[in-house]
Amino acid sequence: MSILQVFTLLGALGMFLYGMNLMSSGLQKAAGEKLRGFLTAMTSNPFKGVMTGLGITSIIQSSSATTVMVVSFVNAGLLTLTQAIGVIMGANIGTTVTAWMVSWLGFKADISILAIPLMIFGFLFSNSKKDQRKNIGELIVGFCLLFLGLSFMKESVPDLRQTPEVLEFVTTWSAYGFSSVLLFLAFGTVLTLILQSSSATMAITLIMLSMGWIPFDMACAMVLGENIGTTITANIAAAIGNTQAKRAAMSHTIFNVFGVIWALILFKPFLRLVGLITENLFGLPNPAADGFAVTESTSAEGTAALYGLSMLHTLFNLTNTLILVWFTSLIAKLVSIIIPAPENQEKEVFKLKYISAGPLATPELSVEQAFDEVIHFAQISKKGAEYAKEAINETDNNKLNTLKEKLIKYEEISDRIEFEIATFLNAVSSEEISKDTSIKIKAMYKIIGELESLGDSGETISRILSRKNIHKKEFDAESLKNLNIMADAVNNAYDAMISNLTAAHKGELTEISNAYNAEERLNNLRNDFRDSMIEEMDNNSNNYQTNIYYIDIINAYEQMGDFMINISQDLEKAFIKK
Questions:
Q1: Residue 44: how many other CB atoms lie within 10 Å
Q2: pLDDT value at position 86?
Q3: For the CA atoms of 168, 171, 177, 182, what is the dihedral angle to 10 degrees?
Q4: Which of 37, 51, 94, 430 is the most buried (most CB within 10 A)?
């Protein structure tokens, strides 16, 4: 095998992987938010969860994308752990569609003949001004590249029958009985870990089998290994997620490892069952029979081997799901024991709650995840405003100092959350995004900036209170009453803002009169309280310094209202369709 052949093989593999990613990405973009709604709506019980996972993975052709999506939704609290386990089981069944597609279209129909003519349609669609057509164009180009890559891989793989010494070396690998099964299982696992795609490893296994490199039983062992290797993607995604996300990823590992264990214990009988089904269902030779050998992929034996391997992949995941779907609650308890909740779980409230598991498979879904985090940011900001109100009313110095420390901490938290959300949005923006997604991202940049300013306002109030205490000044009963009225008005403005954020996220925002009303009330209160205090200062200058502190806090509260109305106006521009 020459150096050129090696690089041709690697390039063909790269084309296959890129085509699969492009096809999956195009499908996900075309589906958009429908995937998210479908996933959250159709998981009320484990069986619905299985069908949901099967359906989504069959559509987007990537169990890894589905599993990462599920882990992210568990991390966000949109799915429970039990619901996620059902979806993951279905995703494992859905990924077998790829094996059948490659076996039939890639080897039997040789769709690569049509791939290049199809490229013109992909090019034309991708140059359309409409996002949906662009996404379909991406899907077509990805589909073509996938099968062109598969065709080039088949052509660049050398025929070992022409090099007997190499064929003998490969054959010795399968001459150690059950040890060979374990060897090829490990090979399939490692190859999937490297390629980060069980579908790519499956395609390679099908090629090796069709070329006569390995016998049918060793190819089956590789497929079992691929099912273990594919779990690493979800575990990587969950590594920086919360406890529930890590548990969801671990349940994927337990599901596949359990399946491989029973499949190894019943390896020979299981292969005989696969062979009988293939023989009777398709009228082909039994690929599990003694003495079975592939002469070439276009022969009846070659077809039987390809269909038999795809049948094993399907039957393995289907049987495993039928066994374990009854024990989803038990699996949830097991992973909860393996990954216990941290003792200091209450501290997690200040971490990013929804995007800590990393970006999702497509920008459209990532934006939805980021919006959840923006709403969470707003809720944290409101909590800081509640501490500011407590600080204004607190007379005990020790308790007041504690509250001031909390306000300073919340200001730091606001800075950190704004930076992390902005970093996440930068990563999303670097991908190819639709016009609607771009508008949403720009709005979110503005919103998190306003939320960070709200965090600064709480810290500003704490500084005013510190100066008041240093000069040993106290607010009278009337001033405290007015400050509490302002604080309550700010709280109502927060409620209106969060309500608008939530409605925009659900696509239900139609107007923002609640925000305008809250802002108008804050402006009127500010004017009334400030004017009455200025009038009092003209008549009585004894409490001048205390009155200045009072006016400063009133102004800080009114400015918080300005930040909040800006957020609702940003939502109005980006999410209300004119």
A1: 11
A2: 84
A3: 130
A4: 94
Report how far residue 280's alpha carbon sits from residue 403's, in angstroms, rounded to the nearest whole number: 75
Q: At 353, is the secondary structure helix, strand, or coil? A: coil
Cα separation, 350 vs 340, in Å, equals 20
Residues 289, 199 contacting (CB under 8 angstroms): no
In whole angstroms, give the CA distance from residue 250 to residue 232. 9
Q: Are 558 and 523 in contact (CB under 8 A)?
A: yes
| pLDDT at res. 109 | 55
Q: How far apart are CA 12 and CA 145, in angstroms?
A: 9
Question: Nearest-CA neighbor of 560 among 409, 305, 339, 386?
Answer: 386
pLDDT along the chain (578 residues), means of 10: 73 76 66 56 65 70 65 64 82 79 65 77 83 80 78 65 54 77 90 75 81 85 88 68 77 91 94 91 85 68 85 92 89 89 50 58 73 90 90 84 84 85 85 80 93 89 87 86 93 94 89 93 91 77 79 92 94 83
Q: Do 98 and 310 contact (CB within 8 A), yes or no?
A: no
Residue 423: how many other CB atoms lie within 10 Å = 11
> Within 13 Å and on the Cβ side, how many CA atoms surround 445?
12
Token pair 């996002």 is at which residue? 131
Domains and CATH numbers, the chain: 60-86+163-359 (no CATH), 362-575 (1.20.58.220)
Neighbouring CB atoms inside 10 A of 164's CB total 10
User: Which whole-number Å values give the CA distances from 525 to 382, 491, 509, in the listed order?
Assistant: 20, 14, 28
